Amino acid sequence: MSRVEKILSEIDILVRSRYPLIYILSHEEHRIEKLISRMIKNQKKAFKVWSVTSGLKDYKYHIDVEEEKNDVIETNPIFTDPLELLEHIIKNDEATLFLLKDFHAFLDDFTVIRKLRDAVYKLNASYKNIIIVSPVLKLPEDLQKEICLIDFPLPDHLEIFDLLRDVAKDLKQTNSKLVNLNKEDGLALAKAAQGLTLFEAENVFSKAVVIDSVLDKRDLDLILKEKQQIVRKSGILEYYPSTSNIDDLGGQTKLKKWLSLRGKALFSEEAKKFGIPSPKGILLLGPPGTGKSLTAKAISNFWKLPLLKLDFGKIFSGLVGSSEENMRTAIKTAEGLAPAVLWVDEIEKGLSGEKGGKSDGGTSARVLGTFLTWMQEKESNVFVFATANSIDCLPPELLRKGRFDEIFFLDLPSNKEREEIVKIHLTKRKRDFKIFDLQLLSEKSKGYSGAEIEQSIIEALYNAFYEQRELNTNDIAEALKIMVPLSTTHAETIKGLREWAQTRARMAA
């Protein structure tokens, strides 16, 4: 059973159980209308739809000769005022499901809230239900105990595939050359389009035809670009097109092996049948500059999954209650774009208010609770990649087993790893590493992080360029000599991290 079918089954149970007030969180009004009308077609219950512009109308389900159709019967607009509407619902004796659009806009008005509460008490003993459909969560405290909240998922790839077949059918009737897809290609496009609403998916399929006069498997790139737009519109997540490769990581042999093993079974139906659960994520702990962020980018490229970065600065906005809503939006966006990697960089900074307890009125605690509950219960194919420079500010409930599949500690690179890091950065800058004394540079960079070694090579390049000559070993050695590494300036902090990780984390190298 798909997520959509499970949610519809839940709504069906609520309606049959005579729950008076249901709030569905979704941008897709038309899709909700169609799905709910199909859900109740065999029940002896009328279905009416209301909007502030059209008023209340009957929604009739009927079978057309060729296909199923759902239509709102065009009648004269009635009860466009929300108070008149609620009065009508209270007095109406017929068993009816009322679907209300735009109603969230009136939930700032205490008179409307009071009338809605009156309606709830009357409906509780009747066969009438109210469903509010809204793209935003607007839940007055007065109604929190009366409302049942449903977060409706975006369409899965099968729903989008059905839409794609309809689009292809219409295009072929116009011109058979406009479509060049077999079933396998169509499913690939539908899976790539997960995260889009049906409206957005239909638009991008039409756009693909306009661009090159054919809908085919080459339109995957166009769909991915459209998904990047969705991430930007969320205003909370960032889309990272990853160009980093796992070979860019110096050392980290145990971490690389762990990622390779998970990559083979990642979100695979075959792995699920074998008894392997979907991976939840990892927490990468280590001093700054040891390659944690680079690893996130490399994982995305290695697994061929989109990389989404969660910015806690955007989560904690100034409006009361909006931080929790922002977290829910971020989670919903990530789930919509699944399979994906959700990168939470420097997670301790985002959740530092939790440790303090009362400094932010409990906002951090509530955001953390939302995030942890999702991590524990998530069924979506979102792999959480969290990084942290410090362990002190992380709440213990985040670190307990079951939240992450594994906690890895990324220490400062060893002698051999420093050689490999120098080699990687010289090659990246089109230098032949064989003419450099890698062993000497490794010895000179003892206690340096990967980022510090890279910066010393960049500093050496500046000096060589200024003197109009080629880079040599001595240039890098001199740059290393004048740099003071973090292992010196923050020796106590790094020592504390190592001691904590010895018994609580797995070594990355």
Name the features.
single chain; Rossmann fold; 509 residues; seven-stranded mixed beta sheet; 49% helix; 23 helices
Structure description:
With 509 residues, the protein is an alpha/beta fold. It has four domains: 3-151, P-loop containing nucleotide triphosphate hydrolases (Rossmann fold, 3-Layer(aba) Sandwich); 157-233; 246-409, P-loop containing nucleotide triphosphate hydrolases (Rossmann fold, 3-Layer(aba) Sandwich); 415-489, Helicase, Ruva Protein, domain 3, CATH 1.10.8.60. Helices cover 49% and strands 15% of the residues. The strands form three sheets. Strands 4-3-2-5-6-1-7 form a seven-stranded mixed β-sheet, with helices on one face. A seven-stranded mixed β-sheet has the order 10-12-13-14-11-15-16, sandwiched between helices. A two-stranded parallel sheet has the order 8-9. Strand 3 (55-63) and strand 4 form a beta hairpin.
